[in-house]
Specification:
By secondary structure, this protein is mainly alpha-helical. The protein has seven helices and three strands. A three-stranded mixed sheet has the order 1-3-2. Strand 2 and strand 3 form a beta hairpin.
């Protein structure tokens, strides 16, 4: 009645660890490389993002600092771009690429981009599911209640759906950023942005793949019961 750390689960842990470390190492090295290359415009990440927001019809979006490195994000709840200091005030190709990517999310929100709307709608559900599925699973295993175990798998499935919906949202934001920099910057900006944002996209692909593999594992173990 209990799940245990079998060979399949150990393999899943190894794959998840390797993918996580590889993609994180790749984005870090790519970002460092392009953070040493000045953007052709001579503007900071915040300034380029502001210009992109204006062109994309998202003039009401604010730009505020956030602590950390590569912690940048767009939060539709406060309608602000949260940019790390390097990307807020830095003028490198990496800085403007990341800032424009986040501006791309704001432009998605302003234009009613469907996957973005679905992703935003899923956030409260996924927050609950991600915080509760493991507890439900453990209780179900301890009490030998198959219904609770199945409920835990369903809750985890919401997290997987969220990861899958996130992929087109992130890819589209990067597409918008590269397109903007291709039109308003030099060739170096476009090449660098494509490189940095492709590396970043791989982290989301890896996260989605890991979640799918974990869901398949849980479904397989549930069927064994």
């Amino acid at each position: 009645m209990f799940y245990y750390y079998d060979g399949g689960y150990l393999l899943l842990i190894i794959i998840s660890t390797v993918l996580g470390l590889a993609t994180q190492g790749y984005i870090n090295s790519t970002y460092r490389k392009w953070s040493k290359v000045p953007a052709s415009s001579g503007l900071t990440g915040a300034q380029v993002a502001r210009n992109m927001l204006s062109e994309g019809g998202a003039t009401s979006v604010g730009i505020v600092p956030i602590a950390g490195t590569l912690t940048d994000n767009y939060d539709p709840r406060d309608n602000n771009l949260h940019l790390s200091q390097d990307n807020l005030s830095g003028g490198s190709v990496a800085s403007v690429a990341v800032a424009c990517h986040e501006a791309g999310h704001a432009c998605q929100n302003a234009s009613g981009y469907a996957p973005m709307r679905v992703r935003t709608a899923l956030v409260p559900i996924v927050n609950f599911a991600s915080n509760s599925w493991m507890v439900v699973l453990i209780v179900g295993m301890m009490l030998g209640l198959a219904g609770l175990v199945q409920l835990a798998v369903i809750l985890f499935a919401f997290s997987v759906v969220f990861e899958l919906v996130t992929l087109p949202v992130e890819i589209d934001a990067s597409r918008r950023a590269v397109k903007y920099l291709a039109a308003h910057g030099g060739g170096i900006d476009e090449r660098g942005a494509r490189s940095v944002l492709t590396a970043a996209a791989l982290t989301y692909v890896a996260a989605a793949l890991i979640s799918v593999l974990q869901l398949l594992y849980l479904l397989g173990r549930t069927d064994e019961r």
